[in-house]
Amino acid sequence: MLNYPIYLFLLSSILYSSVLKSVIENERKTFVIELSIDVFTESDLFPTSLLLGLPTEKLPQIKIDYKNETPIPFKSIQRADKGYKWINQQRLKNLETATLHVSPMAGLNSYYKNINIQIDFDDQATNYKTPNKSETEILKNRIINWVIAKDWLKDDKRHNPRINPPPIREMVSI
User: Is residue 62, in this structure, part of any structural domain at all?
Assistant: First the structure.
């Protein structure tokens, strides 16, 4: 049986995330988010993943401002992977998406407490559609810029309309 201090630790680790994401601007042309990072464990130094909806297949321009370089309060085994990278670009439920990985590492022994990310979108297409219930339910809690990205769903012309089955005929015995 678990005792009270273990319950308290598990609850506090769930409630108090050490990486806070604050959306500053969510417009058709620009998306700005701030990451605030307080390192308590090794996992807090992992890159932060942001799943973004895109207006086209073209990856957007990025400007990142790293602030408040701080020493890591423990001996870390993290590699000093700095910066950002795009991974896993794909279409999800008729929305072009890509995942942005942003590392808080400044070096082997330090990290950035605050990271401001500005993403500038361009080349917006014109053949978008309104999301249906299925698309909304699947994407609304996954896409960080869903408020704007929901207007960028591709109108999939390959979709075949539902065909009604033929009417049932009465059985005739001979």
Answer: yes
